[in-house]
Amino acid sequence: MKEKILEVLKENNEEIVEDMDRDLLASGILDSFDIVDLVVDLEENFSIQIDVGLVTPDNFRTANSIIRFMENILEA
Amino acid sequence: MEKNILELLEKSAVLYADKIAVKDVEKERSFSSLCNNAQKIGSALETQKIFGKTIPVYMEKSVLTVEVFLGIVYAGGAYSLINPIQPKDRVEKILDTVSSPIIITDKEQLNSLQEISFDGRVVLAEDLLNTEINQERLQLIRKKMVDTDALYVNFTSGSTGEPKGVVVGHKSVIEFMHHFTSIFQITSDDIIGNQAPFDFDVSVKDIYSMLMTGAAMYIIPREYFAFPKKLLDVIEQEKITILIWAVSALCVITALRGFAYKIPRTVHKVLFSGEVMPVKHLAEWIRVLPEAMFVNLYGPTEITCNCTYYIIDNKNVEEKVIPIGKAFPNERVFLLDRNHEICTPNTSGEICVGGNTLALGYFKDMEKTKLAFVQNPLNNNYMEMIYRTGDMAYYREDGNFVYIGRKDFQIKHLGHRIELGEIETYIGEIQGIERVCCLYDEHVEKIIAVYQGNVEQKNIRSALRKKLIKYMIPERFINVESMPLTVNGKIDRKKLKNEFFEGK
Questions:
Q1: Cβ contact (<8 Å) for A52 and B261?
Q2: Which domain holds residue B420?
Q3: Alpha carbon of A55: minimum distance to chain B alpha carbons (Å)
């Protein structure tokens, strides 16, 4: 599962996965419109709907946190 | 009518002295303390002889930034916000053009500013507040000012790779804001939720609605616009009543189904601009706020915010295209066809604007100014300036204008005006690139760069990151063996579009 999430992230923007622990928000790699774009990509690839309450800075801070968050959703 | 925007501030400081004027996540100011602080900053800057000069302000949007803007005006200058999220190279280019003896920043941005080469003096905004007000000097300066003096300079994308500074005067802002606040009935009971960055002229409507009507302005942090939950929470908490937002910002909420979490019930007016509003997203906003007023606004920075507006009929949104509507009072908006003749209904032409809301031109660029601000070809008798927007439209029998698209290669992406030529210039400078063409795929809202030359995408991307603002960097790079050309030897954009656009 982790592989596929990684692939979606990479497909969206290679820079996201260059450093798995980099702060994507502070470094400006993900701005507001990028996050919307990324959420839509994740939803389409996994045929899920992500609750807007889960689209939070904590969940989208780093590549690792996105993967953890997605694994939680997909396992639930 | 006022001749200086400070009269608006001073009037509100008397009428609404203790009422909140502007608030951000950290602090708030009443109208009287806003006026007081602006006068302190003005008195400090006055000693630096900035009368008639344009002063760069290198700060994120905040209460203090508004105070600095007004302080600069008190000292007889014009302000130009330089957004710190831009790449260093672009900031340096703008500073070079402005060539101001001073730059104003705050403690938060001081470190990032130190990485930028600037010859003048760096002034800390916080320090300016420790100055005693010198009423006598401030009044002397006011006497010397006229209503055609510059108020702000707003840098937008230019096709040659050089950002263009649009200079807007007091008179234009005062004229436009009187109509804007009266048509949309903005009052001192309103709380305006500011979305737009301050280097984007949508924010002019927030700031000057506040000063003109006594409404409060709440500055929503940029970071919140990634997270609809935070946005909807802050709208509720601050009881925000008016949103004057970019289309893309409104769509952030609907794209992630934000209304399933919370409906922003305090909002009763939603005014949007920047790009074409997708009807699907608008319908969703109207569904949750059926009583609210929704307005489509149109206009480039060069004519001061907007020149046309269209109030949407909430009960009838099945319309495929939302018109950009009719002209604001005292603005002349008309269409000229290819032969510089006026268009009849349902024929397309370039949108032209006349009246006293026209900008004063481009900063230090007479050549570009003369190309865009021209004599009205319909008037052979005396001087009458108009601005040719480069936007194409037609008007319907009911008198409403309908936007069609750009005449040239300028696009609207995420609410920002971008010259594809500017991006091409930078890609072309990268070693190994032989030819490049940028296209905008409107269906998926992506900028595509097609290039010829042996360079890896990764390297182009990282080179561009140093030069361009993020939203200008293409989302897709396509390497081609050879670029298709037209019979005239120009890059065949049509062919590229057919080949690489992601379908309709």
A1: yes
A2: 410-500
A3: 6
